[in-house]
């Protein structure tokens, strides 16, 4: 049901109100403001909204019904016709902001630049049922009943603090719980005041790019690396300087050669995205030393460090930072679910106010109820339990994937178990094109992401990125069998 229709009637006009009403509704239909099939409000409601009599509205409706603009269904109201009368095709539409030619010419330079960012960096709805989409958690194992219970309890008893306009830095109990978790689990050096709850890590990356850098500044990005980080920098007018990664992650030596003057380095030291290596302590120290020498910033994107299966987890880079040049970001997209759109950033105390102001201007604050649910999820120990359970499950799923690839595709690919995360890289033997293979796989219903899609300048070894966390072992085996057909 269309809740209300904005109609403008001119009581001083000599055109009768019924005719004006007819014209207004007809124009709303023709301009698309009232879509085909939309249910229009009852005559009683429209009469009250427009301050006219019910007879006036009924008269206008009768005419629109008889001319085919509206359709009446006995007992179930009045609807905009699906098929408009043929002669309407000749009616000139009112010029409106949605006309593409006008709209494009009116955009600001920033608007044109943002609109030109490749579609792969813009959000889209991601189908979850197709193995091997990367970066998705196990939706089938998410504790929905528990989540619903916490949500229902909160809705019934939540203080108005949860429902009112909130603190742009985030709900205080959640900020406290995140700080406690990060100190204990990740060795992050922070107080709750330094934690800002964001709309996923993407908002944290966007804020960091816009608030720390000026348009035209240079920033190091990992090559291959995360498209979301590059997109946020580009949207802020920042020049991304691709820095190759090796077995220790981003090469600081290469970065210094290419752009020693860069103002920021964007890194995934716990688990390089997409290749999966961990940055060793010596590399972390030299990255921090570079930042210190050049008064540059480091953005540490710690997006999935909860899932480590082997090897020693290293303390977050932020915890080693003696001068406060690291902005730490994390997300609940991987441990909980991505549509929750909750993540966090830890910023030096002196920057908290600036980041919080900018955040408030973008979208005021994160949603109160969801924050309160996550706060309880953490405080009651469900978060830690869920991470432990998922770690075991993902290790099993990864094992099933490695085994299936070994059985079906041993001659064509090379792979070794990933130490952490939710994706596995299958390296192609020989000189096959990973992009071509990924297109072929899509045709048999399997999603594999080419490593080359994440590269800027380097030509990485051809490989396919396979997300395994969200798929049952049966789905994994079936998808590998399908994959084997195309090799
Ligand atoms: C490297 C990296 N950082 C961050 C994220 C999470 O983004 P968000 O928290 O905005 O969902 C992802 C998700 O795929 C990622 O791969």
Brief summary of the model shown:
The chain is an alpha/beta fold and 487 residues long.
Structural class: alpha/beta
Number of helices: 17
Could you describe the largest sheet, including whether it forms a barrel?
8 strands, mixed
* β-strand amount: 5-15%
N-end to C-end Cα span: 51 Å
Descriptive account of the structure:
It contains 17 helices and 15 strands. By secondary structure, the protein is of the alpha/beta class. It has three domains: 73 residues, Winged helix-like DNA-binding domain superfamily/Winged helix DNA-binding domain (Arc Repressor Mutant, subunit A, Orthogonal Bundle); 241 residues, 3-Layer(aba) Sandwich (Aspartate Aminotransferase, domain 2); 102 residues, Aspartate Aminotransferase, domain 1. Strand 5, helix 10 and strand 6 form a beta-alpha-beta unit. The relative contact order is 0.11. It binds pyridoxal-5'-phosphate. Pyridoxal-5'-phosphate (PLP) binds next to helix 9.
């Amino acid at each position: 049901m269309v809740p209300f229709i904005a109609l403008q009637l001119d009581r001083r006009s000599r055109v009768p109100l019924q005719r004006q009403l007819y014209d207004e509704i007809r124009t709303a239909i023709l301009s698309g403001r009232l879509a085909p099939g939309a249910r229009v409000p009852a005559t009683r409601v429209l009469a009250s909204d427009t301050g006219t009599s019910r007879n006036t509205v009924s008269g206008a409706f009768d005419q629109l019904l008889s001319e085919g603009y509206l359709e009446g269904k006995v007992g179930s109201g009045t609807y905009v016709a699906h098929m408009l009368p043929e002669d309407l095709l000749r009616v000139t539409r009112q010029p409106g902001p949605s006309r593409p030619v006008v709209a494009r010419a009116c955009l600001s330079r920033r608007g044109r630049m943002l609109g030109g960012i490749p579609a792969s960096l813009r959000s889209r709805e991601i189908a979850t049922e197709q193995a091997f989409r990367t970066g998705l958690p196990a939706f089938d194992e998410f504790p929905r009943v528990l989540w619903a219970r916490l949500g229902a309890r909160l809705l019934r008893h939540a203080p108005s603090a949860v429902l009112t306009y909130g603190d742009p830095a985030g709900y205080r109990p959640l900020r406290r719980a995140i700080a406690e978790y990060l100190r204990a689990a990740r060795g992050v050096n922070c107080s709750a005041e330094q934690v800002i709850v964001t709309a996923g890590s993407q908002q944290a990356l966007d804020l960091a790019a816009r608030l720390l850098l000026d348009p035209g500044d240079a920033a190091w990005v990992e090559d291959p690396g995360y498209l979301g980080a590059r997109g946020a920098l580009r949207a802020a007018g920042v020049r991304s300087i691709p820095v190759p990664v090796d077995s220790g992650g981003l090469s600081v030596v290469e970065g210094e050669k290419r752009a020693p003057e860069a103002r920021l380095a964007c890194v995934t030291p716990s688990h390089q995205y997409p290749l999966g290596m961990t940055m060793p302590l010596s590399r972390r120290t030299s990255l921090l030393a570079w930042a210190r020498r050049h008064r540059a910033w480091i953005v540490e994107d710690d997006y999935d460090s909860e899932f480590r299966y082997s090897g020693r987890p290293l303390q977050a880079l932020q915890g080693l930072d003696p001068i406060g040049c690291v902005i730490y970001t994390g997300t609940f997209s991987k441990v909980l679910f991505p549509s929750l759109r909750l993540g966090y950033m830890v910023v030096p105390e002196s920057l908290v106010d600036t980041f919080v102001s900018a955040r408030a201007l973008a979208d005021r604050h994160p949603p109160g109820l969801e924050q309160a649910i996550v706060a309880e999820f953490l405080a009651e120990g469900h978060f830690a339990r869920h991470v432990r359970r998922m770690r075991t499950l993902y290790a099993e799923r990864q094992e099933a994937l490695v085994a299936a690839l070994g059985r079906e595709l041993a001659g064509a690919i090379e792979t070794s178990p990933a130490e952490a995360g939710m994706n596995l890289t299958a390296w192609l033997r020989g000189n096959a094109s990973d992009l071509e293979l990924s297109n072929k796989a899509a045709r048999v219903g399997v999603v594999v992401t080419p490593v080359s899609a994440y590269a800027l300048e380097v030509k990485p070894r051809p490989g396919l990125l396979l997300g395994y966390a969200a798929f049952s072992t049966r789905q994994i085996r079936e998808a590998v069998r399908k994959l084997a057909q195309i090799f």
